[in-house]
Structures are given as C-alpha cells and as structure tokens.
Design goal:
The protein is an alpha+beta fold and about 200 residues long. It has two domains: about 1-110, Jelly Rolls (Sandwich), CATH 2.60.120.680; about 130-160. About 40% of the residues lie in helices and about 35% in strands. The chain is built from two helices and nine strands, in the order βββββββββαα. It has helices spanning about 115, 120-190; strands spanning about 1-5, 10-15, 20-30, 35, 45-50, 55-65, 65-70, 75-85, 95-105. Strands 1, 3, 4, 7 and 9 form a five-stranded antiparallel β-sheet that branches. It has a four-stranded antiparallel β-sheet with strand order 2-8-5-6, with no helix packed on it. β5 (about 45-50) and β6 (about 55-65) form a beta hairpin. It is elongated, with a radius of gyration of 31 Å.
C-alpha cells in the first residue's frame, strides 16, 4: 500500500487468542528525479504499534526500513496494527510518497531449516510431524474462535428479532387503541348532535 511520509496507516487483523502473528515489511521511498520507488529507504524507519481489542498496547517499537515484527495475542478479536514512518520532517513539508510491502502471517510456525536438512530421516519426519500437529492445533483454535463469533452474532440477531417483535406488538396495540378511541369519539359526537 502507499502512504504519505508522516501518515499513519492501520490494518485490522482478526486474531484468535494465544496465536503467534509474524509480519514482514519493506519500505520504499518515491524518487522525484528517477520517477520511481527506490529499492530501500535509507535513514527511514517504521514505528509499529499493535493494539488489542481492549485498547491495550501490545507492541510499540521503532524498526528500520525493512524488517520483521511479531507478537502473540492474549485476547481473541480485532487487533489494530499501525505503521508510521519516523520521518523528522514537519507534516506540511513531508510530501514524499512511501510504498510499504506488508506480509502478515497469523499462526505461522516455521520449521528450523537446520533440522530439516539433517541427514537423519527420523528426526526430519519427527520435526515435520510436530509442525503438522502445531498447525492442527492452530486450525482447531481458529475454528473455536469462529464458533464463538458465530454464537455471539446469533445471540445478537435473536435479541434484535425479539426487540422487533415487541415493537410490532406495541405498534399494533397503539393502533387498535387509537381506532377504538376514534370510533367512540365519533359515536359520542353523532349522539350529541342527534344525528343517530
């Protein structure tokens, strides 16, 4: 995505509890003379802030022009990941455009390459098996989180439907009472004028 030099961009990532989130990023600065983005932005870093669904700051750190940051979620819900350059220019003079490449992996666990390349096939199979078991745990955790969200949504929908039903009942009772009052008033009016 593109960003201004002093502009803060935030991304919302829905993460289950106790899940590792790993993000890689790279910043490129627009070169006015070459009319293209430079491969790296020397002297420019990124200030990364991660906020939990309860508005608690989980991570707040300054990184270089490219790098990796990670955090483990303690609560399930929408985590806000904000990136802002550490440019020292005033907002009025910071007109340079930035291109930020961001790759976020939720629940990613990497295999240790030194173990994978080991000559002992039993160890390699064992490590891969542990990796698969960890991925199965992550999928199970993700499914449980989705079930919780679905149950919360269903309860909200049922409460809304119940409120709508009661509102319709109240409206019907009001209309019936107004109709009865109008009929009684008209009947009393015609009786008083001796039209009936």
């Amino acid at each position: 995505f593109h960003s201004g030099e002093r502009e803060e961009k935030c991304i919302i990532e829905d993460v289950p509890s106790d899940t590792l989130v790993i993000a890689n990023y790279k910043v490129q600065r627009w070169d006015i003379h070459k009319q293209e983005f430079l491969e790296s932005a020397p002297g420019l870093g990124m200030f990364v802030t991660v906020t939990t669904p309860s508005a608690e700051v989980l991570l707040s750190k300054l990184y270089g022009p490219q790098g990796t940051f990670s955090f483990t979620s303690h609560l399930s819900g929408e985590h806000v990941i904000c990136l802002q350059s550490n440019s020292t220019k005033f907002v009025a003079f910071a007109g340079s455009k930035l291109r930020i490449h961001l790759d976020i992996r939720v629940g990613e666990h990497f295999l240790d390459e030194s173990v994978v390349q080991a000559k002992d096939k039993v160890n390699e199979v064992n490590v891969r098996l542990e990796h698969l078991i960890e991925q199965i745990r992550h999928v199970s955790k993700e499914q449980n989180y989705e079930r919780e969200r679905e149950e919360k949504f269903r309860k909200t929908s049922e409460a809304t439907n119940s409120n709508i039903l009661w509102w319709a009942v109240v409206q019907t009772l009001i209309l019936i009472s107004i109709g009865i009052w109008q009929i009684k008033s008209l009947r009393d009016f015609f009786i008083s004028k001796k039209l009936v």
